[in-house]
Amino acid sequence: DSAEASPSVVFENIERCSPNCLQMLLENISGLTVDADFTVELIPEINVAVVTFLKNIDTKEFVEKCSQHKRVREFKMTAWLLESTQSIKAENLPESISTDYLTVYFESARNGGGPVSDVQLFPEENSAIITFCDHKGN
């Protein structure tokens, strides 16, 4: 079951921990190295970081370790697995973008994509919703 677990973990309430501190903390807990083994994407607007493991690790076990870790508790952070989704929203798109271009772009393995089943353009928002055929496309 854990082989199917998401490679991404969400950390909430990160404001008390600087980005460098968070990276060191994650390295300490996981025994892995930032950039080589995992990436950290900060989303300061909602006080969250998303950690994506490039190495195949048991992310459920990692979340459990985090919830019991003294420093994580001191910072009052919480961690949980990021659920897989079949749809994503692309924003800040050029006005001339086409559904065909978006389909080909998001199906590109080089971009980490997969088979696309649907693209809905929202020109007034310069955005689109891309729906994948399966979870592996995310």
Automatic annotation (TrEMBL):
InterPro entries from the UniProt entry: Nucleotide-bd_a/b_plait_sf, RRM_PARP14_2
All copies of domain PARP14 second RRM, residue ranges: 5-83
Pfam families to which the protein is assigned, alphabetical: RRM_PARP14_2 (PF23245), RRM_PARP14_3 (PF23085)
Superkingdom to which the source organism belongs: Eukaryota
Signal peptide as annotated in the record: none
Descriptive protein name: PAR14 polymerase
Record gene name: Parp14_1
